[in-house]
UniProtKB/TrEMBL annotation:
<keyword id="KW-0966">Cell projection</keyword>
<dbReference type="InterPro" id="IPR049905">
    <property type="entry name" value="H1_KCTD12"/>
</dbReference>
<dbReference type="GO" id="GO:0051260">
    <property type="term" value="P:protein homooligomerization"/>
</dbReference>
<dbReference type="Pfam" id="PF23110">
    <property type="entry name" value="H1_KCTD8_12_16"/>
</dbReference>
<keyword id="KW-0770">Synapse</keyword>
<dbReference type="GO" id="GO:0008277">
    <property type="term" value="P:regulation of G protein-coupled receptor signaling pathway"/>
</dbReference>
<dbReference type="GO" id="GO:0048814">
    <property type="term" value="P:regulation of dendrite morphogenesis"/>
</dbReference>
<dbReference type="InterPro" id="IPR057093">
    <property type="entry name" value="H1_KCTD8_12_16"/>
</dbReference>
<dbReference type="GO" id="GO:0045211">
    <property type="term" value="C:postsynaptic membrane"/>
</dbReference>
<feature type="domain" description="BTB">
    <location>
        <begin position="15"/>
        <end position="118"/>
    </location>
</feature>
<keyword id="KW-0597">Phosphoprotein</keyword>
<keyword id="KW-0628">Postsynaptic cell membrane</keyword>
<dbReference type="GO" id="GO:0042734">
    <property type="term" value="C:presynaptic membrane"/>
</dbReference>
<dbReference type="InterPro" id="IPR000210">
    <property type="entry name" value="BTB/POZ_dom"/>
</dbReference>
<dbReference type="InterPro" id="IPR011333">
    <property type="entry name" value="SKP1/BTB/POZ_sf"/>
</dbReference>
<dbReference type="GO" id="GO:0043235">
    <property type="term" value="C:receptor complex"/>
</dbReference>
<protein>
    <submittedName>
        <fullName>Potassium channel tetramerisation domain containing 12.2</fullName>
    </submittedName>
</protein>
Length: 255
């Protein structure tokens, strides 16, 4: 394709571009997105046109990828350098994103070193049962749920509807156990020795969270729950809507 034609097509894009990547919104310059020739974003924003790209309900260009990890993709495009937080547990996930966005140099930098390839004991699913140098500690899993009890309980399809699973613990413990499934967007880049109550998981299955904790050597030591009940209307015959907040406390001792 002639250079003049590429310039003509890229000029159809705004200079300031809004992106929706997996639900996370980013605003950047078009020249940042096209900083690496022949990458996926370079192709999309130089050889394509705005109408070729999917958009969300607000007109932002949409990519169905990991919205949290895209921040590091964008940082690399800005400076051609890679800066990751200490104890960063998602290198493999980020390498997968680099491969998708066709950034071979970034993918090469993220490739595991030989020492990282010799992993400790793993479960049948391939996840680490306990990291080397694992430490004692507590992790609290919380969720706010709702369910409806009607006249025909057996027909109720909304039992234990979980909106979001929160994680409260020391930063290093949360990252060790939940890795790439942990959403840190509300409390990013905190030191690993600090505590947080603002993390949550990217899925809403409690059993999936419990499996991760069990494989990391944690055991449940306490649980508490509160709930309230309200009618859908003033008619006593209407279904009852229950809302609850539940916390499960897990502990690991390594001595």
């Amino acid at each position: 394709m002639a250079m003049a034609q590429i310039v003509s097509q890229s000029s159809n894009f705004p200079e300031i571009v809004e992106l929706n990547v997996g639900g996370q919104v980013y605003v950047t310059r078009r020249e940042t997105l096209t900083a690496v020739p022949n990458s996926l974003l370079w192709t999309k924003f130089t050889q394509g046109s705005p109408r070729d790209l999917p958009k969300d309900s607000k007109g932002r260009f949409f990519f169905d990828r990991d919205g949290f990890l895209f921040r590091y993709i964008l940082d690399y495009l800005r400076d051609s350098e890679l800066f990751l937080p200490e104890f960063f547990k998602e290198k493999r996930g980020l390498q997968k994103e680099a491969d998708f966005f066709q950034l071979p140099e970034l993918s090469r930098r993220l490739a595991p070193e030989e020492s990282e390839l010799t992993s400790p004991v793993t479960s049948p699913s391939g996840r680490t049962l306990r990291s080397p140098g694992a430490v004692s500690g507590y992790i609290t899993i919380g969720y706010r749920g709702s369910y409806t009890i009607g006249r025909d309980i057996q027909a109720d399809a909304k039992f234990r509807r979980v909106a979001r699973i929160t994680v409260c613990s020391k930063i290093s413990l949360a990252k060790e156990v939940f890795g790439e499934t942990l959403n840190e967007s509300r409390d990013p880049d905190r030191p690993p020795d600090k505590y947080t109550s603002r993390y949550y998981l990217k899925y809403n299955f409690l059993e999936q969270a419990f499996d991760r904790l069990a494989e990391a050597g944690f055991h449940m030591v306490a649980c508490n729950s509160t709930g309230t009940c309200s009618y859908g209307s003033n008619d006593p015959g209407e279904d009852k809507l229950w809302t609850s907040y539940t916390e499960y406390v897990f502990s690991r001792r390594t001595d």
